[in-house]
From TrEMBL:
Species: Cyprinus carpio (Common carp)
KW Acetylation (keyword) present: no
Gene that this sequence comes from: zgc:158423
Record key words, sorted: Membrane, Transmembrane, Transmembrane helix
Entries under PANTHER family matching the protein: 4F2 CELL-SURFACE ANTIGEN HEAVY CHAIN (PTHR46673), SOLUTE CARRIER FAMILY 3 (AMINO ACID TRANSPORTER HEAVY CHAIN), MEMBER 2A-RELATED (PTHR46673:SF3)
Record field: compositional bias (Basic and acidic residues): 1-19
Protein's UniProt name: Zgc:158423
Top-rank taxon: Eukaryota
InterPro entries: GH (IPR017853), GH13_cat_dom (IPR006047), Glyco_hydro_b (IPR013780), SLC3A2 (IPR042280), SLC3A2_N (IPR031984)
Pfam family, one: SLC3A2_N
Taxonomy of the source species: Eukaryota, Metazoa, Chordata, Craniata, Vertebrata
Listed transmembrane segments: 70-92
Region (Disordered): 1-34
Length: 488
């Protein structure tokens, strides 16, 4: 093919596609749709292979690169040393956290007393086991059970402290109760009050009873109880058997700790201190005076660790004021020491009322019986109040082991502060009187305002509202729990 023929073929390929045949075959038989494939040779890509080792070594040794490397190295170490110095300054200047004091399981929240097992539940110890979930909901940290032994009136020779009274269940029932309670993290303390139905708890022979107590302590601790509770320590602590009883509790296992607990009926700070010093118990339970003596409280806290102090309300019949039970609940949960409540205190049972009323609250009252419905709603509200306090007491460090500072005290009202290190502060204020009271609160730690956490007067002191602390006003029979953050 000559040059002229080549030019004629190029012109033919540049014709409009409309004039090109839609189908056709190449000389090789391949279809072409009106286009001619032109193969353009690809540009040859130039690949960068970098410098060789010899070239790199030659460049790296030049004066410019040596100075650059040294400058970067110096900057790195200066930056590292600067950050280290800054961290040290922050650590030194930051406020030191106080070490958490040593606490036992009986200091971590409320203890719950079930004195009459059959009154608490119709099924005796089986019934107590059925209510363990309820106790968990109430944030109970330990259970004081019984007495569960048999006692005859003024019959020391028939006193058997190591057998279970058939009316409350069997040894197997007790074993099951202990196992299930421990699975739920609830230790159980056995109340070994010798004569619990008579005026003389020691059957007028404390020396002889103390020997039986010693043997009973060993027996029940081996059965799996987590402690023993004894009444009126002023009598037994003077017997020859007392040191032997103490020695039983000083030999605790590595995996658990058992407690020796007791009670004293007098609230005098001097008498309580005397019993604490001479008895060596792990927890001493005292009934709060009515109304409470804040001076006596402060005196006890100044001379004894709060981990060995326990407080109870006493029986409903022993309360002399008509103050709502929620005031007593707030006081027990917020003063230093372990709060100890009897079954029914959480719903405000009155003298003569049976704990069975607690379980009836789960059944709705008749709509037509307005009085019963109102009472049920009130008791449920009291129980919710109790549960909220119990939850706060178990998790807030200021309430668990914080310092106690008295802010206000009168015959019918009081206010005090609980604070711990850098934790939130809690302020309790209550008025037992029949007239309103204005409290002038003063302390270097107090801010201008605090937040309402819990109150009996939702109208004037609504939960989560902010109130002034300069002049805190409380109505008759009212109480409020306030909090504010650590300010440095």
């Amino acid at each position: 093919m000559n040059k002229e023929d080549d030019m004629r073929e190029v012109e033919l390929n540049e014709m409009d596609q409309e004039k090109q045949p839609m189908t056709g075959e190449t000389p090789t038989g391949t279809e072409k749709n009106g286009c001619v494939k032109v193969k353009v040779p690809e540009d040859t890509e130039v690949k960068f292979t970098g410098l060789s080792k010899e070239e790199l070594m030659k460049v790296a040794g030049t004066a410019g690169w040596v100075r650059t490397r040294w400058a970067l190295l110096v900057l790195f170490w200066l930056g590292w040393v600067g950050m280290l110095a800054g961290a040290i300054v922050i650590i030194v200047q930051a406020p030191r956290c106080k070490p958490i004091p040593e606490m036992n399981w009986w200091n971590e929240g409320l203890l719950y007393q079930i004195s009459d097992v059959n009154e608490f539940s119709k099924n005796g110890m089986k019934g107590v086991e059925e209510k363990l979930d309820y106790l968990t909901q109430m944030k109970v940290k330990g259970l004081i059970l019984g007495p569960i032994h048999t006692v005859d009136a003024d019959q020391l020779d028939t006193l058997d402290l190591v057998s279970v009274k058939s009316a409350v269940g069997t040894e197997n029932d007790l074993k099951s109760l202990l196992e299930q309670a421990h699975k739920k993290g609830i230790p159980i303390v056995l109340n070994l009050t010798p004569s619990y139905d008579k005026a003389s708890v020691w059957l007028n022979n404390v020396t002889a009873v103390a020997e039986k107590i010693k043997d009973a302590c060993t027996h029940w601790l081996e059965k799996g109880f987590d402690g023993i509770f004894l009444p009126d320590l002023r009598n037994i602590k003077t017997t020859k058997s007392w040191q032997s009883i103490q020695a039983i509790f000083n030999k605790t296992e590595e995996t658990k700790q058992v407690a020796l607990m007791g009670s004293v009926t007098s609230f005098s700070a001097d008498e309580v201190s005397l019993v604490l010093n001479r008895s060596g118990v792990d927890l001493l339970l005292t009934e709060l005076s009515d109304p409470p003596e804040t001076g006596e409280l402060k005196k006890l806290y100044s001379s004894h660790p709060q981990t060995i102090l326990g407080w109870s309300l006493g029986s409903p019949a022993s309360r002399t004021t008509a103050a709502p039970v929620r005031l007593f609940q707030m006081l027990l949960f917020t003063v230093p020491g372990t709060p100890v409540f009897s079954a029914g205190d959480e719903v405000g049972l009155k003298a003569g009322e049976k704990p069975q009323i607690m379980w009836d609250l789960e059944n709705p009252a008749e709509e037509k019986n307005t009085a019963a419905k109102t009472l049920q709603e009130e008791r449920i509200a009291v129980r919710d109040f109790f549960k909220t306090l119990s939850d706060l007491r178990g998790k807030e460090r200021s309430l668990l082991h914080g310092e106690y500072i008295s802010l206000h005290s009168s015959a019918t009202s009081l206010a005090f502060l609980r604070l711990w290190d850098q934790s939130s502060r809690y302020l309790t204020a209550m008025n037992w009187g029949n007239d309103p009271v204005t409290m002038i609160l003063s302390n270097s730690d107090l801010p201008a305002q605090a937040q309402v956490r819990l109150t009996t007067d939702a109208v004037n002191l609504a939960v989560d509202s902010m109130v002034s602390l300069e002049k805190l006003q409380l109505g008759p029979k009212q109480a409020v729990l306030l909090s504010y953050p650590y300010a440095g």
